[in-house]
């Protein structure tokens, strides 16, 4: 982007592909981290006199307008954060978008409606995606890719559009890639990775990679129960992906062979039912050993011994990557595991990276100061796929 700014952008229409996919509850934004993360790019362009067009997806609408996924709340929040008006177009490439862009004065900003209200955005058909990219290209003179959270998606606005306009990487993408490089090239050891979240299947590829790179892997969240089951423990009615047990068993064996410490919960908080996240009514969980989960109970957080164990495994880390909550942190009775890991990262002397929409939102909604971490990534799937060593379409497109 510095190159673009040096060339001069005054009066130019610059399309910024952001990731404004923020969590919403009853139409209200519960965490605006992703909006704040793209502000440096938007501000720099506006201050240099560009006409800034910001575009993003939000949620997973099915290729047609769906009011619950409107980007309007994100546009309004962006206006608040910028401290100046932001125009909002009620379509993405139609008359409203063209009107909004035509109405921009140098230094002004417009947000167009959700990219995924258009089937061409996510289409698997190259021609259909390219056609939508042509429509997007008609709005702008230059392209800035800054939606790090979406760079792993081969979507029209991420992958096809940069080929049609002079293209540049924004500040957020540059920062994110710089941080992830520190985790993949010449990493400082001990390198400890904490992985949580619901599904082990989402994490298989990254675990596979990390078994050759990390010194310790701490496992929590819903995915821990598939590991416990693979070790031969009964897990009651906890989340379980039976079909992943063979893969997980192989990982347990490989970890031992490679000298990687793969650390599993030693105790967990269990209850007979999933907590009510709306009322947050007391859930009254009990603590049981990880090998003694009752048949009618569900594990919903790591227990107190595990919290201490994981904190001790993080205490001397020189590099930490954490992705995925340790329990159902949205309910106060099951937030302690996630809080303990967040605190251990803060206390660790090393370089700490929080990756993932959920864990990033967790540290902020649990009241931690984001500045206490080395870096909070805006990318969940994107940062995992980067660590897996995959080529990310949105980064490859910017390189060419
Ligand atoms: C994310 O939340 O990880 C990104 O915004 C990408 O969203 P997606 O998984 O719906 O493509």
From TrEMBL:
Pathway: Carbohydrate degradation; glycolysis; pyruvate from D-glyceraldehyde 3-phosphate: step 2/5. The keyword Transferase applies. Gene3D superfamilies: Phosphoglycerate kinase, N-terminal domain. GO terms for molecular function: kinase activity. SUPFAM superfamilies: Phosphoglycerate kinase (SSF53748). Pfam families: PGK. This is Phosphoglycerate kinase.
């Amino acid at each position: 982007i510095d190159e673009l700014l040096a060339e001069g952008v005054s009066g130019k229409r610059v399309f910024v592909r952001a990731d404004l996919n923020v969590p919403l509850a009853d139409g209200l934004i519960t965490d605006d981290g992703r909006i704040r993360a793209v502000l440096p790019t938007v501000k720099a362009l506006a201050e240099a006199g560009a006409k800034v067009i910001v575009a993003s997806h939000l949620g997973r609408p099915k290729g047609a307008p769906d009011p619950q996924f409107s980007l309007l709340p994100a546009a309004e929040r962006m206006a608040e954060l910028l401290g100046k008006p932001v125009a909002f177009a009620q379509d993405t490439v139609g008359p409203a978008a063209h009107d909004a862009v035509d109405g921009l004065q140098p230094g002004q900003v417009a947000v167009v409606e959700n990219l995924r209200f258009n089937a061409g955005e996510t289409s698997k058909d190259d021609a259909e995606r390219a056609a939508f990219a042509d429509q997007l290209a008609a709005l702008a003179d230059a392209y800035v890719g800054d939606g790090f959270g979406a760079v792993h998606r081969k979507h029209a606005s991420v992958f096809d559009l940069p080929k049609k306009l002079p293209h540049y990487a924004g500040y957020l993408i540059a920062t994110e890639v710089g941080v992830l490089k520190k985790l993949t090239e010449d990493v400082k050891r001990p390198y400890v990775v904490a992985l949580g979240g619901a599904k082990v299947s989402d994490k298989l590829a990254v675990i596979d990679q990390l078994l050759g790179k990390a010194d310790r892997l701490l496992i929590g969240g819903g995915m821990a129960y598939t590991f416990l089951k693979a070790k031969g423990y009964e897990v009651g009615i906890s989340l379980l992906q039976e079909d992943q047990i063979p893969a997980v068993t192989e990982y347990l064996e490989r970890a031992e062979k490679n000298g990687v410490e793969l650390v599993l919960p030693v105790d967990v908080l269990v209850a007979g039912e999933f907590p009510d996240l709306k009322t947050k009514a007391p859930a009254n969980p009990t603590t049981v050993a990880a090998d003694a989960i009752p048949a009618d109970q569900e594990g919903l957080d790591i227990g107190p011994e595990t919290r201490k164990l994981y904190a001790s495994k993080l205490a001397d880390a020189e590099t930490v990557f954490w992705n995925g909550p340790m329990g159902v942190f949205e309910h106060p009775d099951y937030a302690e595991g996630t809080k303990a890991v967040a605190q251990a990262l803060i206390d660790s002397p090393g370089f700490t990276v929080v990756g993932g929409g959920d864990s990033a939102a967790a540290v902020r909604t649990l009241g931690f100061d984001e500045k206490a971490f080395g870096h909070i990534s805006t990318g969940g799937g994107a940062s995992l796929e980067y660590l897996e060593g995959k080529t990310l379409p949105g980064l490859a497109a910017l390189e060419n």
